[in-house]
Design goal:
Number of helices: 3
Oligomer: single chain
Radius of gyration: 14 Å
Shape: globular
Number of strands: 7
């Protein structure tokens, strides 16, 4: 796995990076967002959604569980696994979303065993009042056998 760590001094800086990161994402990709409350998961999604042309402003799907954003580049499925019980996590239809659009999953560590093997992991940490650290973990490329 390849690791890359970045530090952001403000939410705007994180959103700017999210817009640049979004250029390499395509429908069918899954991004697993992992981090404590307030670490910037939704802030990063806002930058990605804006880069894909979503103009209404992405918001946290904590209570909706899944938001769909129709964009010129395709549909973004923004999911949040935070408030689901273990039983509910097991029955949430994650697999129904794979391959349909860009999947951005907050609290993805709660469903890690169900993520596609090609999912990108983004770990976020609070390092100060406005500062956040982001570690991007790319999956290992599989060798042909």
């Amino acid at each position: 796995m390849a690791f890359r760590t970045l530090v952001f001094r403000s939410p705007a800086e994180m959103q700017d990076w999210g817009r640049r990161f979004a250029k390499q994402l395509k429908p069918g990709d899954t991004v697993a967002l992992v981090g404590e409350l307030g670490s910037g998961k939704t802030t990063l999604v806002q930058g990605i959604a804006k880069a894909w042309g979503y103009r209404r402003g992405a918001n946290s799907p904590t209570f909706a569980l899944a938001n769909e954003y129709e964009t010129p580049r395709g549909t973004i499925y923004h999911m949040d696994m935070y408030r689901l019980s273990q039983r509910e996590l097991g029955t949430f239809p994650l697999e129904d979303y794979w391959g349909r659009g860009l999947c951005l999953i907050e609290w993805a560590d709660r469903v890690r065993d169900r993520l596609p093997s090609a999912a990108l992991e983004v770990h976020l940490r609070i390092t100060g009042p406005e500062r956040r650290a982001l570690t991007l973990i790319r999956p290992k490329k599989r060798r042909a056998v």
